[in-house]
Amino acid sequence: MSDPFSLNGGSAVAMVGKDCVAIASDLRLGNQSLGLSNNFEKIFQFGDKTFLGLTGLATDVITLSEVFRFKHNLYKLREERDIEPKTLANLVSSTLYEKRFGPYFVSPLVAGLDPKSNVPFICGFDSIGCIDFAKDFIVGGTASDQLYGLCESLYEPSLEPEDLFETISQVLLNAVDRDALSGWGAVVYIVTKDKIIRRVLKTRQD
Amino acid sequence: MDVILGLRVADATIIATSKAATRGITVLKSSDDKTRVLNPHNLIAYTGEAGDTVNFAEYIQANIQLYSMRENDIELSPKATASFIRNQLATSIRSRKPYQVNVLLGGYDVASNTPTLNWIDYLGTQVELPYAAHGYAAFYCTSLFDRHYKKGMTVDEGLELLKMSLKELEIRMPLDFKGYYVKIIDKDGVRDAGSL
Predict the structure, then answer these.
(1) Are B138 and A34 within 8 A, CB to CB?
(2) Which letter does DSSP use for residue A99 in this model?
(3) Which of A113, B95, B109, B159 is the most exposed place for a label (fewest CB within 10 A)?
(4) d(CA A140, CA B56)
């Protein structure tokens, strides 16, 4: 209780497939045990094929999504191109470390495809910006323990986009059903080289 | 333990606030209005730490009015107003002495003809909702709203639902709130709907 990371609840997960990545989150926003909103998205898009998931303290989720939108807009003006997932990861890392002794209470995830080579990229961070590079999957939020368990048992490498969608959806849905602070709907993004698929999932409403 | 409730209906937003101003176990006033009109189509209702609430609400009010003076009488939209308030609170929470104020922002967007209700807490958490409440009242009222709220309700149906939840509060909560002020925000602006 009164842990800033679990005040509002929420979870997110990202996975790598064959020439594709997926990132998904729940839609709940609460105040401790009280559910407030079932439409609070925690995944933000930067350019064509780069996504950022932000779980943790909701005020910081909103603040950081605005900070990164601003920094991405400046980046686009300077570079005349969208940001690469790897560059966004380093931007997230340095932005979080700027607040080393008074951190934002979030666990961000980055997922995307390299704009040129379409090589999948995912990574996660702690609240002060330490990057956790992963080849397979990354989890975050109040159901992160459950997400780890489900990822370890359901994930397999080199899944096609539709199979990856099924895997990440089952992982998220079954993880949040064992967490009182997550759930209330979910959203899944599948990123392939020629299209982004966004699907909103129906979940248990308790 | 102040009560502030908000309800968005088809073409208006309704805000209800308790009249009692309490300090510890003493009721200091039974005609306290916990709202401020920001501009013709925006109203905030607030609860929280005694001195902070009015100071914060009037600071917001002054800045929203200053915007209209500077920008040729253009009203700041509910969405922009909510964003401004959130930003102030989110900045304040990481300062030496943060404002301990929770607010509901009832608004009517004149450009798109839509009523809005924004829930914002002292941390700077902001959500747009069909119905909302702050504090203990939220536990009793949200469940009632969940059961009886329907999309596209009329103002009268909204007021009925509001009466229902205020009655529930009187049954379930240990305090006398000394009645409630009800305000309606619609295309014609903010109007007083009397007290319940």
Answers:
(1) yes
(2) T
(3) B95
(4) 35
Q: Which residue of A has its CA nearest to B140?
A: A34
Contact B29, B21 (CB under 8 A): yes
Contact between B49 and B100 under an 8 Å Cβ cutoff? The reply is yes
Residue of A110, A92, A95, A106 lying closest to A50 (CA atoms): A110
**A64 to chain B, closest Cα gap in Å:** 11
Q: Please state, rounded to an integer, the average pLDDT across all residues of chain B.
A: 97
Which domains are delineated in chain B? 4-195 (3.60.20.10)
Instruction: Enter the ipTM.
Output: 0.96
- HSE-CB at A164 with a 13 A cutoff on CA atoms is 25
Count interface pairs A-B at CB distance under 8 A. Answer: 37
- Residue A74 identity: L
Neighbours of B97 (CB within 10 A): 7
Around B110, how many Cα atoms within 13 Å sit in the side-chain half-sphere?
12
What domains are defined for chain A? Answer: 4-201 (3.60.20.10)
CB contact under 8 A, B125 and A62: yes
pTM: 0.97
Cβ of A117: how many Cβ atoms within 10 Å? 9
The DSSP H or E segment spanning B7 is strand B4-8
Best residue in A3, A62, A99, A101 for a mutation probing chain B (most B CBs within 10 Å): A62
- The pLDDT tens digits of the residues spanning B153-165 come to 999 999 999 999 9
